[in-house]
Amino acid sequence: MTRDNKIHPIMEQFLNSSTELPLYVIYQQIKAQPDEIDTMRLICLHCKDASNQHVAMEYLYTNGLYEDLHTVIEKNRSSIHSTIRNYALLYQIMYERKTLSKKQIKPDAPMRYVKMSNRIDSTSTDNVFHILKDLIHIYSYFDVHQYGKIGNYNDRIKERLDMLTDPLLRELLEARLDETLCIYHWKRNEVILSRKYGYKLLANTNNQRKKIDLHNIFAQTYVLESYEQAIHHATVALELAESIQDERAIYGLENYTIPFISSYHGKTDEVKTEDVAEQAHLALRKGDNKTCIELLEALPTLTPFQEYYLGLAKKDKALLRQSYRHFIEERDDYFYARLPLLALQEMDQ
Question: How far apart are CA 259 and CA 278, in angstroms?
Fold first, then answer.
């Protein structure tokens, strides 16, 4: 039954079939219909065939149905099939990363997820299993800002996707690859390519949380080009987050993305943030260099962003050069490395 207590004919067909149909067969009949997500959600919860389990978990994950995903994970952790149990362990890692507390933007110890995934049946030759492990590695490197390490995994995932025969699973995992390529090319300062993958994913996803993430990325890809474009995407992301009451996304947008864009462009009226570094950025753009310096010098260590803010406040070229080096050498972030580089170029004029 669906959430309005009406059973969809496809759901009825699935439940009454003597042999459980592959999920891709059901999906092809219901794809893009208004009740696709709700019907597929229920089918994923009710399917029993071992060959459907990892597809069900991927569908739920890709569509942001994390509590339903957790239900299926718990069921599969006690499966008689070791392969399914291993899949459940991988999805448990991804579930944990997606369900952090409201104010926690990144996991506390992202590389722990890499170690956990590496302990799971490393002898498997299953392509899907290795794609999922590679994705966990990508997400972990993203969380610790090691963007340069993502490229090799992207190439390997592409090769393994070509070997998949399940059309639904391939479609879902290709969407995940598009997302990683969007981020990878953004950080390589290849924003046209980044947006290409991002807009492709945006046009094909029904996952509201994914749309929030994409508009957040788009906002940042435009920050150096256009305040209007950047703040438009940030505002769309915030509206989507508020519509589904995604508190973690709301917090991140209100305290990081929107203050950063606003401060960079000097649009500081009525902008507030709980983040100390962005408070310093706001003070800097308001001309209060003293407060900016005091806030940043009170921090135990500085990120490349904070070095950039402090370098601007102090008009210190050495700090700006250090910020640039750290963006490149520590993060492989060629996009945001442009911030201190542009500041240095302005000082030299």
Answer: 7
CA distance linking residue 264 with residue 148, whole number of Å: 25
pTM of the model: 0.91
Instruction: Report how far residue 44's alpha carbon sits from residue 61's, in angstroms, rounded to the nearest whole number.
Output: 11
Contacts of 101 (CB under 8 A, 6+ apart): 248
In the structure encoding, which two tokens stand for residue 129, read together? 């299993």
Distance CA 89, CA 129 (A): 11
Which structure tokens are listed for 329? 């050498």
CB 223 within 8 A of CB 204: no
Q: Which of 252, 170, 260, 167 is nearest to 209 (CA)?
A: 252
- Residue at 232: amino acid letter: H
Q: Provide the 8-state DSSP code for 301.
A: S
180-236 pLDDT, tens digit each: 999 999 999 999 999 999 999 999 998 999 999 999 999 999 999 999 999 999 999
Q: How far apart are the first and last CA of the chain?
A: 68
